[in-house]
Amino acid sequence: IINNYLDGTQGGAVDKASLSGMHFRDSRRKVDYVLAYHYRKRLTQHPPGVGSPESTRGSASSALVSNGGTGKSRAEPQRQDGGQHGSQGPPGAEVIELGPLDTLEEEKRLQREEYERNLVEAGLEIEKDPENKSQGLSFVRIHAPWQVLSREAELLKIKMPTKKMYEITEEGGILKTLNEIWRKLTEPLQPQVPQQGNTNMKSLSYPFSREKIYLYNIKDKDTFFDNATRSRIVREILKRTSTKARNSMGIGTLIANNVYDAAYPLHDGEYEGQNDDMNERKLLYREWARYGVFYKFQPIDLIRKYFGEKIGLYFAWLGLYTEFLIPSSVVGIIVFLYGCITIESDIPSKEMCDQHNAFTMCPLCDKFCDYWNLSSACATARASHLFDNPATVLFSIFMALWGKSTMFLEQWKRLQMRLSYFWDLTGLEEEEVSFPLPEHPRPEYETKVLQKKLKNKNITTENSNEDEKEKLTWNDRVPGYAANFGLILFMIMLTFSAVFGVIVYRITTAAALSFSTNETTKSNVRVTVTATAVIINLVVILILDEIYGSVAKWLTEI
């Protein structure tokens, strides 16, 4: 869908000034969100003169622009006519009969028109591609003007920087000296990302308020809200805008009902190519999202600016976790090398591998297995010493102290508090508790509630409370709980069956290989059985993981 959007914007549907598809046709208003949908309509034959090129040229060359004034006067009558008689195709076009799909497509079209009208009423500006084909993929571009952004930012209590600045001072002494030495040592590992102003100065942030707009450092209204904030605001409007058709609640329900195919914000331009235009997406690709820069630190502030605070915190945690794995891997390699060095002096391995001390062991099974020599397990004993030696105890103690219990957890708490301070996330949890925003339920849940509401619409009593919110009761949830319980029980039995099957495989394979006439095969029965059982376990785990993921997704949606 995204590739088709870019191809459509570069295929002559827009002006040369907006070939990247990032702006409206006026090349001024930025595209904050895109709605994509497939349309399908029936071409009808018309008498000569009705479908003349003069009458159809306007339909093919203009797009609907709401709140912008471009092409709206011509597109509206054609849209009304298309809703009654179908869309006009080129002269001499053949009739495409869609049968029962006509009613469904017409219903989707009406829902889209009503939803887009409600978006315009909410203050958003939209621009649509002309539907000049019998079927295809079309896009609705959405722009949020300053009035909408400021209103929603105040409603969502988004913190924005004010004109008040203060200096961030660092502690002196030996810690400052160590930090400077560390910065010089890690300078080649730092991403080449331009600094945003003076790093020692910080703006005081405050929840946005239109009444106190003089407090904020607004240099340009078009860039005051960054792309992530603009996308978040538009997304909130899309989620709460409803339609009367099928009582749809927001864009999530419309996508679930296939009225729209997708809804997404645009990236910040191209990241590949030889052009010199640098944008944040290309900068992230060069300094972060490539295998060639795996050794560098993450530009975490740029990640937060481009994707938002949630994604920024996630990658901050992932980066810290990866950094803490480096010392753990180094200690693990040292333990492994210690095992390699001391393998010749390991007493249990020497006794098992000594051919002069022939220890005869009891058979591994009752009837068909023969006595076997302990020296046949020499390779297994030497290999186990590499990973299980006296240094492993020290490695376990190191991991217990280095892991979640102490070092890693405490370091993550410090990093999280530091990022919360610099990203103005302090007090966010208290605000969510004091002023909780309404949570939007899943589209599938909304659909079931609406179906129940329509089913009980005619069943009213005198004592019914009209203001009571409709919700699913215990009787409505019983089938879902029964399906959940049955499938979970089945998956537990399937897991036990897989484990039992591997055990049976080990027993039968060991017994079968014991009858082999090949001495090499007979002497390596344990190694063969163990290795193949491990591979089977790995394959079973991967398969069951995919099955569990699909079943969990299906159980969530029912």
Automatic annotation (TrEMBL):
Domain (Anoctamin dimerisation): residue spans on this chain: 24-300
One Pfam family it belongs to: Anoct_dimer
Secretion signal, residue range per the UniProt entry: none
Transmembrane segments: 314-338, 481-505, 525-544
Superkingdom assignment: Eukaryota
Domain Anoctamin transmembrane: 303-557
GO-annotated molecular function: intracellularly calcium-gated chloride channel activity; protein dimerization activity
Compartments it resides in: Cell membrane; Membrane
Biased composition (Polar residues): 53-67
Bilayer topology: Multi-pass membrane protein
Main location, first listed in the record: membrane
Record's GO cellular component terms: plasma membrane
Region annotation (Disordered) ranges: 44-98
Keyword terms of this UniProt record: Cell membrane, Glycoprotein, Membrane, Transmembrane, Transmembrane helix
Family (UniProt): Belongs to the anoctamin family.
Name listed for the protein in its UniProt record: Anoctamin
